[in-house]
Amino acid sequence: MDSFKYKDGTLYAEDVPARKIAEEVGTPAYVYSRETLLDHYTKIDKAFAEVPHLICYSVKANSSLGVLAILEHAGTGFDVVSGGELARVQKIGADMKKVVFAGVGKGDAELVQALRAGILMFNVESEAELENIDRLAGQLKAEGDMKEPARVALRVNPDVDPKTHAYITTGKKENKFGVDLERASGIISAAKKHAHVRVTGIHAHIGSQITDVTPYQESLTKVVSFIKTHRGKDVPIQYLNSGGGFGIYYADRKAQPAAKFAEVIVPMVKDSGCTLVLEPGRFICGNAGILLTRVTYVKESGNKRFLIVDAGMNDLARPTLYGAFHEIWPVEASELPPTRGGKPAEGEAYAVSDVVGPICESGDFLAKDRALPKGLARGDLLAVYSAGAYGFVMAGNYNTRPFVPEVIVKGGAHYVVNRRQTVEELLARESVPQDLL
Ligand SMILES: *Cc1c(COP(=O)(O)O)cnc(C)c1O
Question: Where are the beta strands (DSSP E) in 242-326?
Fold first, then answer.
């Protein structure tokens, strides 16, 4: 599952004691395992080996340059959703012919940046965007900066419910993403009159943290039938992009292995005659990261115990934003965490606790009503598991708290790939003109 394991009562990230990293870089700190990243990528790659496929890692899940470089080296392409993310993959020297660009509101500067870079294709979300890409590509052509038409995949909304959290459902007809299949037909016909774009793919990303294969079955059945119909109408669709969304293991053992998703997706891809594009994010990096945090104070109030830790909602927003569950367990522990094969945390030795951050918001918590060892005290280190996806990338500076460091472990070595921000750096962009006063 991942490379965070207890040996002799202390947590290791691969072969490095988590305690050692915390002592060196301080807390809070994100720690990622290279081995786990590669393992999860390889699992998907192998599961889909039977069909021509391109894995475009979804940069928004974890955009650390170190993580991107490791995955690029292993052969992934990238799915970006902004000019900033495109700049990240450009910076690590990624092959632009393996980059796709998604997002409902791509701005002109971002589109031009991607057109100049020569990315594989844009996932287009509306007719207005298609027209805009045609216009910008036409301008670049006139300036001699582009020879070929821009390649696009039309993002369709297949109206299926992946039964995940409402904020991460994207494929229902009331969501802002993509266009319904009927409208998509009209857009594809109309696209023929645009000289500077070519529709070469259909894209359908239906949501995130999906732990059931059925929504993919439903969605791709509609999409494949759509592709076949349009091929009959002389629209040579080459790419079927099923997006990301494969769920991971947080609390229960509900997550499916990649092979289970492949079982339903591969036959449909074969039937479509297309190259499959996948955009996994969380599946690759979610379980590959932990957040290390230290207990600042222990306090009892009402009949609750609060463990006040040095990481807050600005460092890890998921519990606050989605009510997400992250396993939390001491770094020094004789028992394994309950969700990782340990005994249920019950009885005398445990106390029901809220793990809360230092931020001045009641919503600032990492866990509620969690049974944790009674003996926990000020200074003790805790690991927050499955924090590799949508963790650091969603961090902010609320309460003027600097960004925390990111560390990648490789075997017995560890590397700080993003050092802790200083307060001076945080304040450096601001100024107070005298005239203001
Ligand atoms: C967020 C997103 C993904 C990645 O989703 P995961 O659940 O992390 O796999 C892929 N494609 C698109 C278009 C996205 O918006």
Answer: 275-278, 289-301, 304-309
